[in-house]
Amino acid sequence: MPRTPQPDAAPGQPAPAVTELLRAWGAGDARASEALVPLVYAELRRQAQRALRREGDGHTLQATALVHEAWLRLGGQHDAHWESRTQFLAVAAQMMRRVLVDHARTRRAQKRGGGATQLSLGDAGRAAAVQEAADAVDVLALDDALARLAVLDPRKARLVELRYFAGLSIPEAAAALGVSPATVGREWAVARMWLRRELAP
């Protein structure tokens, strides 16, 4: 990823400007990538911080490293057809999930099977430490469960990724999935129950 920019203006930035840059970047315009960084960096960093907050004590990845690794992977999406800022952030969530899973696998291999990375299945907006500790799961087990859920119900698996790894709100996830917020609310509740059952010891 290019140099770390100053805090971006993404929340107040008109969506069409970001969308136009995304499309130009997808078409191979390297200058569009440079112009895009300051517009989306802060939001990507917020995504990374939300994802890392759900890890247990002792994780070694920092938000900046997670953003940079995800950005490199996003840059490798040569056949991507960017349609909107929300879609871009959704794909960024996928990349962050992959980075976290790869990092957890590496750490586990180094520790010969020990030191599982823990994540919380609590509501994406909830910060209660006690509840998060109660909901902690192994990131690799979660990744496996999400792969199984994707076979049964791809949209619910995508929703978990958007809410859990990207920290998107119900309305943002609804926009990314092209469904109503009410539908997302219902499916989020069902997906969380399914995952808790799958991940129960």
UniProtKB/TrEMBL annotation:
Gene Ontology biological process terms, A to Z: DNA-templated transcription initiation
Keyword Kinase among record annotations: no
Keywords assigned by UniProt, alphabetized: DNA-directed RNA polymerase, Sigma factor, Transcription, Transcription regulation
Single GO molecular function: sigma factor activity
Source species: Roseisolibacter agri
Span of the signal peptide: none
Similarity remark: Belongs to the sigma-70 factor family. ECF subfamily.
Any one GO CC term of the record: DNA-directed RNA polymerase complex
Protein name: DNA-directed RNA polymerase sigma-70 factor
RNA polymerase sigma-70 ECF-like HTH domain span: 17-199
Coiled coil (residue ranges): none
